[in-house]
Design goal:
Blueprint lengths: L14 E7 L13 E7 L1 E3 L2 E3 L13 E3 L1 E4 L2 E5 L6 E3 L8 E2 L8 E2 L1 H8 L2
Parallel strand pairs: 2-7
Antiparallel strand pairs: 1-2, 3-4, 5-8, 6-7, 9-10
C-alpha cells in the first residue's frame, strides 16, 4: 500500500472475495448467468478480523444492484462504499435502497429507467 509521500506501508490489507451470479445486466460487458467475483475491503487476515467502517458485508444468497469497476486479472470492486451497492429488490415504490445499513442513499425508479431503460 503506497502512502501519499511515496513511502511504502507494511500495514496488512484484508479483502473478502464474494461470488455473484449475474441475473440482469443493465450496462457494461456482462452476460446473464455469468459468475463475477467482487472484492471488498475487510475480512480475516492472519487470525485478525478487519472491518471497514461504513461498509457492509454482502449477505450470502442476497440480491444486489452493483456498480462495479473491473481490472484485468483482479476481482471487480464496488465503485463507492455507499453508492456502489444497493439491495437487489426494489421497495414498493420501485426504488433501490443502499446496501449499507443506516444509509439513506437511493436510486429512484424513474431515474433508473431514464438511465438504463428498464
Amino acid at each position: 500500500m503506497a502512502n501519499p509521500d511515496g513511502e511504502q506501508s507494511s500495514a496488512p490489507t484484508a479483502h473478502t472475495i464474494f461470488t455473484f451470479k449475474v441475473s440482469d445486466c443493465f450496462k457494461g460487458d456482462c452476460s446473464l448467468g455469468s459468475i463475477v467475483e467482487v472484492s471488498q475491503l475487510g475480512g480475516v487476515l492472519d487470525g485478525v478480523t478487519y472491518v471497514l467502517a461504513g461498509a457492509d458485508k454482502f449477505a450470502v444468497g442476497g440480491r444486489y444492484l452493483l456498480f462495479l469497476g473491473t481490472f484485468s486479472g483482479h476481482p471487480a470492486v464496488a465503485l463507492n462504499l455507499t453508492q456502489g451497492a444497493y439491495l437487489g429488490d426494489p421497495d414498493g415504490a420501485g426504488d433501490y435502497s443502499s446496501a449499507v445499513p443506516g444509509s439513506d442513499w437511493k436510486i429512484w425508479a424513474a431515474e433508473f429507467v431514464d438511465t438504463f431503460g428498464s
